[in-house]
Write a structure and sequence with these properties.
With 562 residues, this protein is of the alpha/beta class. The protein is built from 23 helices and 13 strands. It folds into three domains: 9-83 and 236-397, Rossmann fold (3-Layer(aba) Sandwich); 103-165 and 176-218, no CATH class; 413-561, no CATH class.
Amino acid sequence: MLEEIAVRKRAAKRHFGVHGYFTRQAWNVVAEYIKNFSQKGDVVLDPFGGSGVTAIEALMNGRKGINMDLNPMAVFLVNSLTAPVKLPELSKAFEEVKQEYLKKEPKTKEEIQKTLKKYPPPKKLALPKGSDVDTVDKLFSDTQTAKLALLKSIILKQKNENIKNTLLLMFSGMVTKFNLTFHTNSTATEDSISGGNASAFQYYRYRIAPRPKEIDLMKYFELRYNAVKAAKKEMEYFINDKTISHLDVRKGSAADLSFLANESVDYIYTDPPYGKKIPYLDLSVMWNAWLDLDVTEQDYAQEAIEGGERRKTKDEYNSLIAQSIREMYRVLKFDRWLSFVYAHKDPEFWHLIIDTAEHCGFEYAGAVPQKNGQTSFKKRQHPFTVLSGELILNFRKTKNPKTLLRGVFGEDIDEIVMQTIEGVIAKNHGATLEEINDELIIKGLERGFLHLLQKQYTDLTPLLLDRFDYDPDAEKFNIKKNKPFKTHVDEKLRIKYFLTSFLLTNGTTDFDKIIYEIMPLLRNGREPKNQTIESVLKDIGEQTENGWRLNRKAGSQRTLAF
């Protein structure tokens, strides 16, 4: 089993900076899982493929990749990014497009109106409810629409399909910022193209920017060209005319993998939608309208989300996720692995995943907490309702699977929950919502009380805010000030927690004062002896002429924790 892996998102040009998307797994995390759970030449499947990180990393590591997604935007991104091209030919095509555009670029009001009449605008598709305007065309000024329409028409003249689609990938990346929803941040300079994001990615809704920014289209198109060219160059040794047949990119539902035979896949790594978090098809409408990509009612019916424009229910979501797990079991070979990435605060969804997997015949092998890089805007905006990071659940398809025990507890579930929470707070010197959630899910799975969590704790936030102190700067929950642990957390962990907190607050202090101050907080269960406190103190502190203080290692760890 792998441990948590340090994220290196920006280190791969093939994923970072090419084209925005709503979520994207860290490429190096995916690559490590592929290398750990499969062999060269194996078939790696991601039935919720999104922007293609799994499939692309499979090919980059000598495997075959299958990328499946309902969203035509995602399918377009993967196909156009991986389409083999000769870089000199791409450069020549880009220059042709650039020169023709500059020759015809509309600048005056009259030229803009003339261009609007000559070249097709985006489809007037309806936007999701809650958008600031009702149709896609209203997300663009006349100037933006005219310039984009002209550029697209010039690109479509290219006869080489791979080059044309590569240029359309650059064009689509431009649509992300060349619209009225592009919000700039306070650090962006007047002529900067960076320093902001489209509202669909930042807010998960179409929100017109209070001060829409005018961007030089051709200057930005050149930046898109450089980013895509760098990505192609990085991939060309592993993804080229000879190896592209090892990649299968499909539009379709993870609940229907009928194109795959039973036991035909060697490894599955997948990151499905997390309930209500992101309505992918609803939010992709701006790009789909410009790229002439169709989304059918059948697509919406098969999308595994809760809510959205079709107001899909939790039962519908559960049913589609469960069916997708059954299909994954069917196509996976025996003695091979499924890594299922998930993040949700409601234990019901975890219970669904485990129950469905075990009923199919999967054997649960453990879960790994995994951070996903920089904290999202949504997390900063809603610290108690959005989880940062995920758990990666690992399952093995085996002939004689062991199932998790379903514990029968005589004690109150509240006692179990509180002991787990206090334990992770003591262990980490304060704990984030994610650390607490991960610990409860993993312990609930492995000790058999997840079904009890499902019944009584769909959201931990009210309990945490009521029974613990919250530090908004560090985003950590702590034991209430001058209060003892309420459950029987390991004695040395309790001592270490209070000693560290006390010395961090009070600085160098004599031993008697330490005993006097923290002993009352330790009277929970068996009262520790002075010698026990001193032994822990020697681990985290150092003695000076004036008393005890935190040693540098403990102090730096504490600072990092907070």
